[in-house]
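As promised in the previous annual report, we have extended the structural survey to additional targets. Below is the entry for Efflux RND transporter permease subunit.
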Amino acid sequence: SDINDTLSAAWGSMYVNDFIDEGRVKRVYLQGEASARMLPTDLDKWHVRNQRGEMIPFNAFATTQWYMGPPKLERFNGLSAIEILGEPAPGYSTGDAMLAIADIMKQLPSEISLSYSGLSYEEIQTQDQAPALYVMTILFVFLSLAALYESWSVPFSVALVVPFG
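The corresponding structure token record, generated without further manual editing, is:
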């Protein structure tokens, strides 16, 4: 417990107590000086009380060294994640790129899953709605032309001529 508390206070911060200042309750946090927590070797400057009540340095029971690791741990929906950013090669659509990623996912273990966010997520959510949207658009244009020309047959002629004009 003492070791964890010392590490928490030295390298992060620890809530200690409250005090009243000008009628307002303010929190007190304990935190090591920034200059005393910049390098792994700075851990040797910190001491913790042992079972006999003596203060011993961390280097009496722990060692420090640099390890390479990610600058931050990515999370998506609360799970460990890897963020992949990209765009399709010239001549390919975003749908083609997402299909290629889905094919790659089939080769990976079943514990690994795929989720999209942002525009890719929106594209997947709306891809099934495109045919219905096209039909409604054509119907809207046809009914607008029918009302404009007061005829059911003229809109067909106008709609067929538009691509050539």
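DSSP finds five helices and six strands in the chain. Strands lie at 14-21, 24-30, 47-49, 55-57, 75-76, 79-80. These points will be discussed at the next consortium meeting with the crystallography subgroup.
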